[in-house]
Design goal:
By secondary structure, this protein is mainly alpha-helical. Helix content is 79%, strand content 0%. The protein is globular. GO terms for molecular function: transmembrane transporter activity.
Length: 506
C-alpha cells in the first residue's frame, strides 16, 4: 500500500480540476432533464409515470453503484476508474442526444448514471488523499462548490434552453465538454491513491442493490402513490430486509464491499447523523418551493429557477470561504451559526401567504442557502478527517449513499405530510363554507367554482406551511447534535492510528 506521506506532497491540481469539471457536469446533468420531461412526454407519446423513470432510473443506478464505489476505488487505479466512468457518461450522453425512441433514451440515462455514480466518491477520495488534515477544509470547500452549485443551476439553465431549443440540446451542450474532459484525463491523469488486490463479493453487490435500490425506489414513489400502494411498501420492506442482511454480511467479512466498522469513529458517526437529518430538512425548500411558486402562484418554471439562482451563487461563493473558516475554527461554530440561520429562514417559509412578494422569497431563500453553505461541507469533512487513510473510500461511499437514501426518505416524508395536511384542511374549510350558507339558498355555479378554487389554494398553502414547520423541528435536531462536535486528532496522530490499523489487518 502507498504511504500516507503522499498526502503532504504537492497536490495534483491539474488532475483535481479535471475531476471537478467532470463531477460538475455529471451532477448538472442529473437535474437538467427535470424541466424537459413534459416535452419528452409529448414527443415520444409516453405517460407521466413512464417519463419519470428518466429521473427515477438515474437515481436508482446511482443508489446501487455508489455503495460499490469503495471497492472500485481500492481495486482500480484512479486514472483507469475516472476514464472508464467519463467514457460511460459521454457514451450515454451521445446516445441520449440521438435517441429515436423512449426506450433508447431511458437506456442512455442508465449508462450516464453508471458513469456519474463513481465521480463524486472518486473526487472526494482523491481530495482526502491529496491534502493533509489541516488543509482539507479549504479543499473540500471547493468540492462543495461542485456538489451544491451544479444541482441549483440545473433547473434555471434547462428552463432557458427548453424555452428556446429542443430538449435534445440539453445533451448536445454536454457532449463536447464531456469529450474534452475525457481527452484531458487521458493526458493529465496520474495514479496517486493506493490500490489493493481485493475480490468482489457478488452476494454483497446483490444485497446492496436490493437494499439501497428498494429503499430509494419505494420512498421516491411514496409521495405520488401513497404509503398503502404495493409499489411503495413492497420495495421498502425488501430494502429493509436486504439492508439488515447486507450489514450483517459486511461485518463478518475481512474485505467488505462497504465498511460499516467506520462508525466506531465517533466524529464520523456524528457527522453522518447530522448529514442525514440535514438532507431530510434541505428537501423542504427544494421540493416545496417549486410547488408553492408554480402551482399556487402561477410563476413560470423559468422564473422559479431564477428565484433559486441567487442562493446557488451565494453557496458557490461561500463554499471556499467556509472551507478556510473550517480549517481555522472547526466545524462546531460554523455548524451552529449555519443551522441557526437555516432554522430561522425555514420558519419564515412556514408563514407564506398567497400574496408573499417574489423579492421576499428570493431574499429568504438566498439567506437559507447562505446558512446551509456553512454546515454541509464542514460537518462532512470533520467526520472524514477522523478516519484512517485506508478507510477513506468507505467513508466517501457511505456519505454519498446516505445522502441519496435520506434525501429520498425526507422527500417522501415531507410530501406525505403536505398531502395529509392539505386534505384535512380542505375538509375543514369545505365544512365551514357549507355551514355558512343558508339552508334554502341555491349556490351560484360561478361562486361555487370560485369557492372550490379558494379552498384548494388555501388548503395547499396550509399543507406547504405545515411541512416547513416540520422541517424546522428536523433542523433543530441537527442543531442539537452539532453542539457535540469537536476537532479530531491532528494529522500526525492520524498517521499513527493508520499504522496501527495496518498492523492489525496484517
Amino acid at each position: 500500500m502507498a504511504s500516507n506521506e503522499q498526502q503532504v506532497t504537492k497536490p495534483p491540481y491539474a488532475m483535481i480540476i479535471i475531476l471537478f469539471i467532470g463531477a460538475f457536469v455529471s451532477i448538472l446533468n442529473e437535474t437538467l432533464l427535470n424541466v424537459a420531461l413534459p416535452s419528452i412526454m409529448e414527443e415520444f407519446d409516453v405517460s407521466a409515470a413512464a417519463v419519470q423513470w428518466l429521473s427515477t432510473g438515474y437515481m436508482l443506478v446511482n443508489g446501487i453503484l455508489i455503495p460499490a464505489s469503495a471497492f472500485f476505488i481500492q481495486r482500480f487505479t484512479n486514472k483507469r476508474l475516472f476514464i472508464t466512468a467519463m467514457a460511460l457518461f459521454t457514451a450515454g450522453t451521445v446516445l441520449a442526444s440521438f435517441s429515436p425512441t423512449f426506450g433508447v433514451l431511458l437506456a442512455a440515462r442508465m449508462i450516464q448514471a453508471s458513469g456519474s455514480a463513481i465521480m463524486m466518491p472518486l473526487l472526494m477520495n482523491v481530495m482526502l488523499f491529496s491534502f493533509p488534515v489541516e488543509r482539507r477544509g479549504a479543499a473540500m470547500g471547493m468540492f462543495g462548490l461542485v456538489m451544491i452549485t451544479a444541482p441549483a443551476i440545473g433547473p434555471t439553465l434547462s428552463g432557458w434552453i427548453i424555452e428556446h431549443y429542443s430538449w435534445r440540446m440539453l445533451f448536445d451542450i454536454v457532449i463536447p465538454l464531456a469529450a474534452l474532459i475525457l481527452i484531458f484525463a487521458v493526458i493529465k491523469f496520474k495514479n496517486i491513491t493506493p490500490n489493493r488486490d481485493i475480490k468482489l463479493d457478488v452476494w454483497s453487490i446483490i444485497l446492496s442493490s436490493i437494499a439501497f435500490g428498494g429503499l430509494l425506489y419505494g420512498f421516491s414513489l411514496a409521495g405520488e402513490r401513497g404509503w398503502d400502494s404495493p409499489h411503495v411498501y413492497i420495495p421498502i420492506a425488501a430494502g429493509v430486509i436486504g439492508l439488515i442482511i447486507f450489514i450483517t454480511r459486511q461485518l463478518r467479512m475481512e474485505d467488505p464491499l462497504l465498511e460499516f466498522r467506520i462508525y466506531r469513529y465517533p466524529m464520523f458517526a456524528l457527522s453522518s447523523a447530522i448529514s442525514i437529518v440535514l438532507s431530510m430538512a434541505m428537501f423542504s425548500a427544494m421540493l416545496l418551493m417549486p410547488i408553492y411558486i408554480q402551482t399556487l402562484r402561477g410563476i413560470s418554471p423559468m422564473d422559479s429557477g431564477l428565484l433559486m439562482l441567487p442562493g446557488a451563487i451565494v453557496m458557490g461563493i461561500m463554499s471556499p470561504i467556509t472551507g478556510k473558516l473550517f480549517d481555522k475554527f472547526g466545524a462546531r461554530i460554523l455548524g451552529v451559526i449555519g443551522l441557526s440561520i437555516t432554522i430561522y429562514t425555514t420558519y419564515l417559509f412556514s408563514n407564506l401567504t398567497l400574496d408573499t412578494s417574489y423579492s421576499y422569497l428570493v431574499m429568504v431563500y438566498t439567506l437559507r442557502m447562505f446558512g446551509m453553505s456553512m454546515v454541509m461541507m464542514p460537518v462532512m469533512t470533520n467526520g472524514l478527517n477522523q478516519l484512517p487513510a485506508n478507510m477513506n473510500p468507505h467513508g466517501t461511499a457511505m456519505n454519498n449513499t446516505l445522502q441519496q437514501v435520506s434525501g429520498a426518505i425526507g422527500a417522501a416524508f415531507l410530501v406525505t405530510i403536505m398531502q395529509n395536511r392539505t386534505e384535512s384542511e380542505a375538509e375543514r374549510l369545505a365544512e365551514e363554507a357549507m355551514s355558512s350558507l343558508p339552508a334554502s339558498a341555491q349556490p351560484d355555479p360561478a361562486q361555487l367554482a370560485d369557492l372550490q378554487t379558494h379552498i384548494m389554494n388555501q388548503s395547499m398553502l396550509e399543507g406547504i406551511n405545515f411541512s416547513f414547520t416540520i422541517s424546522v423541528y428536523i433542523a433543530l435536531v441537527a442543531l442539537v447534535l452539532t453542539f457535540f462536535m469537536k476537532r479530531v486528532k491532528p494529522a500526525e496522530e492520524s498517521k499513527q492510528e493508520t499504522a496501527s490499523q495496518h498492523a492489525l489487518e496484517s
